[in-house]
Design brief:
The protein has 333 residues and is mainly alpha-helical. 75% of the residues lie in helices and 3% in strands. The protein has helices spanning 21-51, 58-87, 94-127, 132-135, 138-163, 181-185, 193-226, 231-259, 268-293, 295-317, 326-332; strands at residues 11-14, 91-93, 173-174. Helix 1 crosses helix 10 (295-317) and helix 2 (58-87) runs antiparallel to helix 3 (94-127).
């Protein structure tokens, strides 16, 4: 079969943000601060889960995977956006755009399935607490986590191949601050109805399957909580699930608004706001939500911070040695 590169577009221009210099500087500072805070929050969660023995269980293993996804999601889009705002370089190569879209859909798809797995984990913990250790073992948790990454990869591979085998011959101006399905599809010179149908069908089947698992899990959790006699038990069960339920609501609400609809309803201004919610703000909010709602995470974070402060305190409080070596001693430690 003869293989022809149908694309005459070799690069795209990302035009999703303002060109006004004074606004660009403010946006650069704002998004850089959000990005650094996101990295700090999620890396701290990962360190706490890795170092604290109290968090070595399936629930926090899945939370660690979520934090890793929340590190990857803004890292795929924000550095390029910051470069464009700082230097005014909005050009991205055809290959770079394809890679950016592939990685973004991979991470988003993986997170959808991971949230469903986390809902199932909470269902077993609350509805079958005595059998929890036997049902949700660390081996099963590892298999489930790997499964979410694998399904996310192949889901992204399908969508990317469908989009970037289209014919791009006209405008190359992507009305977004990164390469995403709706704005890239809008630039194609080829008929996109069949591709959109496949995209919506696959996204609908996989996304609705994950959503149904989440919905059924929380339905059974709600019944179990309502059946508890102790108000303390109900409060504990609710506090265990409230963080995950809040994250699920934020993530599903924004992704459904972005992807589960035809391109004829595509609105660049609306999509920029929605995409910033799930692509930038949600990864920032997730560690905050889990820190505020989960006492075990709060305790682990407190122990991590205390551990990091002890060496500094020990150095400052150490008795002085010989005068000639005191400065050298501080630098060696």
């Amino acid at each position: 079969m003869q293989r022809i590169n149908m694309s005459t577009v070799s690069e795209f221009i990302l035009i999703g943000l303002s060109d006004a210099p004074e606004v660009r500087v403010l946006l650069f500072v704002l998004f850089l601060s959000i990005y650094l805070a996101t990295m700090a929050g999620n890396i701290t969660i990962l360190i706490a889960i890795r170092t604290d023995a109290h968090l070595h269980n399936p629930m926090y293993f899945f939370l660690g995977n979520l934090s890793l996804l929340d590190i990857l999601c803004p890292t795929i889009t924000v550095p390029k956006m910051l470069q464009a705002m700082l230097f005014g370089n909005k050009v991205i190569s055809f290959t770079g755009c394809m890679l950016q879209l592939f990685l973004l859909i991979d991470v988003v798809g993986t997170e959808i399935f991971l949230l469903a797995v986390m809902a199932y984990d909470r269902y077993v913990a609350i509805c079958h607490p005595l059998q929890y250790v036997n049902i949700v073992s660390m081996k099963l948790s590892a298999h489930l986590a790997i499964g979410t990454w694998v399904v996310g990869f192949f889901n992204s591979l399908l969508h990317t191949s469908l989009i970037f085998t289209l014919f791009f011959c006209g405008s190359n101006r992507v009305d977004q601050y990164y390469c995403d399905i709706p704005p890239v599809l809008a630039l194609s010179c080829s008929p996109t109805v069949s591709r959109e149908l496949v995209t919506l069908t696959v996204a609908g089947v996989l996304g609705s399957s994950a959503f149904v698992v989440t919905l059924i899990s929380y339905f059974h959790i709600l019944l179990a909580v309502l059946g508890m006699n102790s108000a303390e038990s109900r409060h504990k069960a609710f506090s265990t699930c409230s963080a995950h339920l809040t994250v699920v609501s934020l993530f599903y609400g924004t992704t459904i608004c972005t992807y589960v609809r035809p391109s004829s309803t595509y609105s660049p201004h609306q999509d920029r706001i929605v995409s910033m919610l799930y692509g930038i703000l949600t990864p920032l909010l997730n560690p905050i939500i889990y820190s505020l709602r989960n006492k075990e995470v709060q305790g682990a974070l407190g122990r991590v911070l205390c551990t990091s402060r002890k060496p500094a305190a020990a150095q400052l409080g150490s008795p002085p040695q010989e005068e000639g070596n005191s400065i050298g001693h501080l630098f060696l430690h």
